[in-house]
Design brief:
about 190 residues, GART, 7 helices, binds 5-O-phosphono-beta-D-ribofuranosylamine, single chain, 7-stranded mixed β-sheet
Length: about 190
């Protein structure tokens, strides 16, 4: 299958996934495009270094979706993979790719999901709740943040002394070890 990865930040998940699938063509997954809503996103540099075409979308593009949908069609994208992409996915994209958009969330949904619940905010909330475990959720994307059907979850035990940053590190390791496997299996 041909996938497009959407990023807003550093792109460590995109890097792990691109490196895996470029090194293992037998997985049958090809990363054909990287899309970002931030021209400064580290994910764009990662894509350029690995010969992957990229597209930066601004709010106007995003509102109409014409250029974005045209690019996804031109690259014959089968599956959209969100990896640290922060904008809400609009109806036109959900309708154009029904059950073909997935996201990874750095917590065990349905807890710690929703608008504003991303990155360090999630791990600070887990810490404040004194949870003994956290984890990751891969889910289909609908028009609401973090509400689509869950495809996969994995948990990690936390140490009571863990800081939110240490919780984030544990969870990111879980993401890097699992997200590409889930995508390969879809
Ligand atoms: N949605 C969340 O955003 C972060 C992105 O990290 P990176 O892939 O840009 O390093 C990850 O923790 C992911 O769960």
């Amino acid at each position: 299958k041909r996938i497009a990865i959407f990023v807003s930040g550093g792109g460590s998940n995109a890097r792990v996934m691109i490196d895996r699938f470029q090194a293992h063509p037998e997985d049958g997954v090809e990363v054909v495009l990287l899309v970002s809503n931030k021209a400064s996103a580290g994910g764009l540099t990662i894509a350029a270094e690995r010969g992957i075409p990229s597209l930066v979308v601004n709010r106007n593009d995003w509102a109409t979706g014409e250029d974005l949908l045209a690019a996804l069609e031109a690259y014959r994208v089968d599956l959209i993979v969100l990896a640290g992409f922060l904008w809400l996915i609009p109806a036109y994209l959900v309708q154009a790719y029904p059950n073909r958009i997935v996201n990874i969330h750095p917590a065990l949904l349905p807890r710690y999901g929703g608008k504003g619940m991303y990155g360090k905010h999630v791990h600070e909330a887990v810490k404040a709740a004194e949870d003994t475990e956290s984890g990751i959720t891969v889910h289909y994307v609908n028009e609401n943040y973090d509400e689509g059907n869950i495809i996969f979850q994995a948990a990690v035990r936390l140490d009571p002394d863990d800081s939110p940053e240490q919780i984030a590190e544990r969870v990111l390791r879980l993401e890097h070890g699992n997200y590409w496997r889930v995508v390969r299996g879809l």
